[in-house]
Design goal:
This is Amidohydrolase family protein. It comes from Neglectibacter timonensis. Keywords: Lyase. InterPro entries: ACMSD, Amidohydro-rel, Metal_Hydrolase. This protein has helices spanning about 15-25, 35-45, 65-75, 90-100, 110-115, 125-135, 155-165, 180-190, 205-215, 235-240, 245-260, and strands at about 5-10, 50-55, 80, 105-110, 135-140, 170, 195, 220-225. It is of the alpha/beta class and about 270 residues long. It has a single domain, classed as Metal-dependent hydrolases (TIM Barrel, Alpha-Beta Barrel). A 5-stranded parallel sheet has the order 4-5-6-7-8. Helix 9 links the parallel strand 7 and strand 8. The chain is globular. The mean pLDDT is about 95. Bound molecules: zinc ion (ZN). Zinc ion binds near residues 7, 9, 199 and 227.
């Protein structure tokens, strides 16, 4: 069975050596690649994963251009990328149009790193523009070790955004809420414009809990993901394989749903 990892991270070669240890120290998470594009692609290949979608994050307005240029340059062979905008940047909407032109696959928002709450009025035009451009938005959803006491993207608020923008495709990372599977089940499960990804799920869900949440939400709207370098392909693959889902359902999640959502062939 082929696997495509829809949620990976890497950095420009000149930054990776500093960025990974710094983030790892703040989040108290070990890391499993050297954080570069080349090192990540090599690790995926070694693990037997067909390819990955890198979700980049612009943490300041000034960073947007370089982050998205790096994303565009990184897209070849087994690697594809999302771009990012800083929600409070004056030119965020303009940059979203550039993301579309660059051929990136969507937009990643990480409200913890970008220091905004997803329900902020300032963020609403971003959602409207993404809906208009047909660009999916991947949200870091639920808790985050970066700011563990404050949830910037709670599943109930994300559910309201999904209702407010019915033609926006939302990817609610971490199965709809890291460390918050009950809220994900209560508020987000079953929403037709929401995908869940399995990134980092082996750290907070048992195979039984994962299967329950997948069944509740819908097998056709779950994307296999690891959150590499913060978790590994073997760990997250083992979690999906340990569920009681049928082989064809596992294959949908492993690669078929990503193929139809992104229009790619794995
Ligand atoms: Zn991530």
């Amino acid at each position: 069975m082929k696997y495509f990892d829809t949620h990976i991270h890497f950095f420009p070669d000149t930054l990776a050596g500093k960025a990974l240890p710094r983030l790892s120290g703040i989040c108290k998470c070990p890391y499993f690649t050297d954080g570069t594009r080349g090192g990540t692609a090599a690790a995926l290949a070694e693990w037997g994963c067909s390819g990955g979608m890198a979700l980049h994050i612009a943490t300041t307005a000034k960073q947007q251009t370089s982050v998205n240029n790096f994303a565009a340059e990184s897209q070849h062979d087994s690697i594809r990328c999302f771009g990012s905008v800083f929600p409070y940047a004056e030119n965020a909407l303009e940059e979203m149009r550039r993301i579309k032109e660059l051929g990136l696959y969507g937009i990643k928002l990480h409200p913890d790193y970008q220091e905004f709450f997803i329900g902020d009025d300032a963020a609403l035009p971003i959602y409207a523009e993404a809906e208009k451009l047909g660009l999916p938005i991947a949200f870091h959803t639920g808790r985050d070790p970066y700011s563990p006491s404050l949830v910037h993207c709670p599943p109930d608020v994300l559910a309201k955004i999904a209702d407010l923008f019915p033609n926006l495709t939302i990817i609610a990372a971490h199965m709809g809420g890291m460390d918050m599977p009950e809220a994900a089940a209560q508020y987000l499960a079953g929403k037709s414009n929401v995908y869940f990804d399995t990134a980092f799920a082996s750290h907070f869900l048992t195979p039984g809990q994962l299967e329950e949440l997948i069944r509740l939400h819908g097998v056709d709207r779950v994307l296999f993901a690891t959150d590499c370098p913060w978790s590994t392909f073997p760990e997250e693959k083992a979690l999906l394989e340990a569920t009681g889902l049928k082989p064809a359902e596992k294959e949908q999640i492993a690669c078929r749903n990503a193929e139809s959502l992104f229009g790619i062939s794995v």
